[in-house]
Write a structure and sequence with these properties.
alpha+beta, N-terminal domain of MutM-like DNA repair proteins, Helicase, Ruva Protein, domain 3, 2 domains, 5-stranded mixed β-sheet, 13 strands, about 25% strand, binds zinc ion
């Protein structure tokens, strides 16, 4: 699933490319990916209005249009936005030679929105869980942004909290934008077991988690996200964070610190990766 760094990469690129442009039409073969209003009303609302701003909130993309229209896109498990110029031939979107036509992850187009300059903004999503909707306002009820919060406020989030640290970090209501990949990597760098009860963590642990959370998220933004799975940039290219991951999907491989084999177990239905030697329970 695209997490904070992947969504940030998409938003930053889109800002450079489509602010000031207008959407002019919409095609979809999967109407239920447009949650509200109906596809016809949705199309009417978003077309022929200037795109004035684009923001990220957690894993959500917000596109602000003239007349106060706010379009929300959540890419969910396997969705990603692409920007290019396709041709519609024999009921199929055909991309130019390059990553958009050669990488099959860029070929599951289910919503294609035309722009007034002849290009299209398309949503490629193999599993079709992604969604678009029009919002009444841009208040999204999720936790604070990990790159905007300061240490004291971060520390305060844990006051009187119970639970396992990895699950809290991945809980969008607790803190926004972090999913399985980054929670695993943050805890490895912090030398904390993913199942550790937060009540057992000390000040030094929280300082490490905070520092490593900001470091890893920024590092991944710099590398343009993680493409271990299906994420691609709006140009259809892979990011680079998967090349420096230390534990995620590395079960059976030696830990970079101590050579102990990385292990995998299931935590709340999610594959969880850690070094049993570096990340001991207290
Ligand atoms: Zn280790």
């Amino acid at each position: 699933m695209p997490e904070l760094p992947e969504v940030e990469t998409i938003v930053n690129d889109l800002k450079k490319e489509i602010i000031g442009r207008c959407f002019v039409n919409l095609w979809t073969d999967t109407e239920n990916m447009i949650k509200r209003p109906s596809v016809n009303d949705f199309t009417k609302k978003i077309t022929n209005k200037k795109i004035v701003d684009i923001k990220r909130r957690g894993k959500n993309i917000l596109i602000y249009l003239d007349k106060g229209i706010i379009l929300l896109i959540h890419q969910k498990i396997s969705g990603h936005l692409l920007l290019s110029k396709w041709e519609f031939i024999n009921n199929q979107w055909v991309a130019k030679p390059g990553p958009l036509s050669e990488d099959k992850m860029n070929g599951y187009l289910h919503i294609v929105i035309g722009l007034d300059d002849g290009r299209q903004l398309a949503l490629s999503d193999q599993r079709k869980f992604a969604k678009m909707e029009i919002l009444k306002d841009d208040k999204i009820d999720i936790g604070p942004e990990p790159l905007e919060i300061d240490y004291n406020s971060f520390r305060e989030l844990f006051r009187n909290k119970r639970g396992k640290i990895k699950q809290l970090l991945m809980n969008q209501e607790f803190i926004a934008g972090i999913g399985n990949i980054y929670a695993s990597e943050i805890l490895f760098l912090s030398k904390i077991h993913p199942e550790e009860e937060v009540s057992k963590l000390d000040e030094k642990d929280f300082e490490n988690i905070f520092k490593n959370m900001q470091f890893i998220l920024k590092e991944s933004i710099r590398l343009r996200g993680d493409s271990f799975s299906d994420f691609r940039t709006i140009y259809g290219e892979k990011g680079g964070f998967q090349n420096i991951m230390k534990v995620y999907q590395k079960d059976g491989q030696p830990c970079v610190n101590c050579k102990t084999k990385i292990e995998r177990f299931n935590l709340g239905g999610r594959g969880t990766f850690y070094c049993p030697n570096c990340q001991k329970k207290k």
